[in-house]
Design brief:
Structural class: mainly alpha
Helix content: over 70%
Order of helices and strands: HHHHHHHHHHH
Strand content: under 5%
Distance between the termini: 31 Å
Shape: globular
């Protein structure tokens, strides 16, 4: 199992570092179907893996000036309540129901990512990035910023609702929720795509930490050696992913990952749905 955890961790870390969101959603099915973890241990272990890996990937994006710290922390803190509620709800849901819902979530994520990849070549919120080539105009890309969050009331409400929903997903499914954070940062706060990707990793780390705290004391057994091996491999992958993000067209990355998501979602549904009938 430990030998298998290394390539799986590398793959998930690579996708998380390169895409800033979506990659972490593969952690739970990988832990359940490939590494033999039960559903509740997998969703909890996933939070640890995703949170630590996001922090590792964050460093690479920060060096490239793609992180806005203040805004990311605010978004993450706004999702704490959702993380707590989601963690409590997850403990009361039967494993096969949870996995069936998880397969549906993966299909939703795949749809969102595919729709993003089909977006116009230049979007209003992404004037600094060429959506087809991934080229970044450094003169327009912000450095790591601690500037306060300044948005109007409508956008503030949108951010609050989105942050709470992302926190709920994080706590319930044990995922980072970056697939929702990235478009929220682009649409609600007007971030350029590279900055949204980098900042989303900070949000993922905050959400994962709060969800883990909410699950503390629930009495489940975690395989710390397996999780540690998986996490270390994922960290290496996330660092590589941060470099890949600067060299490979985002559309190519997103579409390839979308195909993988659909395949995993269908497999998860095929394994869990018959158990409900």
């Amino acid at each position: 199992m430990l030998a298998l955890a290394i390539p799986i961790g590398l793959l998930i870390g690579l996708s998380l570092g390169a895409l800033g969101g979506g990659g972490s959603i593969l952690t739970v099915p990988a832990l359940v179907y490939l590494l033999g973890q039960d559903t509740r241990s997998a969703t909890t272990g996933s939070l640890l893996i995703v949170g630590v890996t996001a922090l590792a990937g964050l460093a690479a994006h920060a060096r490239e000036g793609r992180v806005r710290v203040a805004q990311g922390l605010v978004f993450g803190v706004l999702g704490v309540a959702g993380s707590w509620v989601g963690s409590r709800l997850s403990a009361s849901v039967p494993p096969n129901v949870l996995l069936t819902a998880f397969s549906a979530l993966m299909l939703v994520v795949a749809t969102v990512m595919y729709a993003r990849s089909r977006g116009s070549r230049h979007t209003p919120a992404d004037t600094a990035t060429d959506a087809a080539t991934g080229a970044v105009d450094v003169s327009q890309t912000p450095v790591v910023s601690f500037a306060p969050l300044r948005i109007d009331r409508t956008r503030a409400l949108r951010v609050l609702v989105t942050a709470t929903a992302v926190g709920l997903l994080t706590g319930f499914f044990g995922v980072g929720g970056g697939f929702a954070v990235v478009p929220a940062l682009v649409l609600a706060l007007g971030f350029a795509m590279p900055v949204a990707v980098g900042t989303s990793l900070l949000v993922i780390a905050v959400n994962s930490a709060s969800a883990l705290l909410a699950r503390a004391g629930q009495g489940m057994h975690l395989d710390w050696v397996l999780l540690g091996t998986f996490t270390l491999a994922a960290i290496v992958g996330s660092v590589l992913g941060g470099r890949v993000a600067s060299r490979v067209p985002p559309r190519t990355l997103s579409r390839a990952f979308t195909v993988l998501l659909v395949l995993v979602a269908l497999y998860t549904a095929a394994r869990s749905v018959p158990q409900l009938l």
